[in-house]
Design goal:
alpha/beta; 38% helix; globular; Rossmann fold; 7 helices
Length: 200
């Protein structure tokens, strides 16, 4: 099972890129911060190292031009990343959209990031797994696809630069590549501050 959509990933009207946020203070502490209210707090934004890695990554990437729309998660770590990257990459519009928010990990909120593995192991068996009280793989993919469908209906020929988090990007890249999203941890992990082209 995957997100219900008639959108054809092979014939998109826009070009899509993804960027994972730079190293955050939650990364540094080794804890899971996936709740929207907590994630918006600046105390969980980027570390100094994270800010610098975003600058380096953006400077090493191609310039995208004024026909670029930046879209980021409302979390402090992604908004800060997006502002830094946009300043370097292109003068385009910046939109904050909750469709790109971190995957909610429910009972594992504010616990060790070692607990990600418990959820990922269940994802492999069932992309609708919510036993942790959080979001399933398909929950995340559905909201992301809705965002892309919205852009595809109203504009064409733009670069859409999505600034998000590890799991949402892993899951979305699977859709772009035609891979079952339940095995999202089977593709190369998105490193902090990494940029990838998503569309074919």
């Amino acid at each position: 099972m995957s997100a219900n959509t008639t959108l054809d990933r092979r014939h998109l009207r826009n070009t899509y890129y993804g960027m994972r946020h730079g190293e955050s203070k939650a990364n540094e502490l080794g804890i899971i911060i996936s709740d929207m209210e907590t994630g918006r707090k600046m105390e969980f934004s980027l570390t100094a190292c994270g800010r610098e890695s975003v600058r380096i990554s953006a400077n090493n990437y191609l310039m995208l031009g004024s026909d670029t729309i930046f879209v980021c998660s409302p979390f402090a770590r992604t908004k800060t990343t997006a502002f830094i990257a946009k300043d370097i990459l292109a003068p385009g519009l910046l939109i904050v959209d909750s469709s790109l928010r971190e995957r909610y990990f429910g009972i594992y909120e504010r616990t060790s990031n070692m607990n990600y593995e418990k959820v990922w192991n269940e994802d492999k068996k069932d992309p609708d797994y919510r036993g942790h009280g959080g979001e399933s793989v398909n929950d995340v993919l559905t909201r992301e696809i809705m965002l892309i469908e919205g852009f595809e209906k109203i504009i064409s020929g733009y670069n859409i630069f999505l600034v998000s988090h590890g799991d949402p990007l892993q899951i979305l890249e699977c859709w772009f590549r035609g891979i079952n999203p339940r095995v999202h941890r089977g593709i190369a992990n998105w490193k902090t501050a990494e940029i990838r082209r998503l569309s074919m």
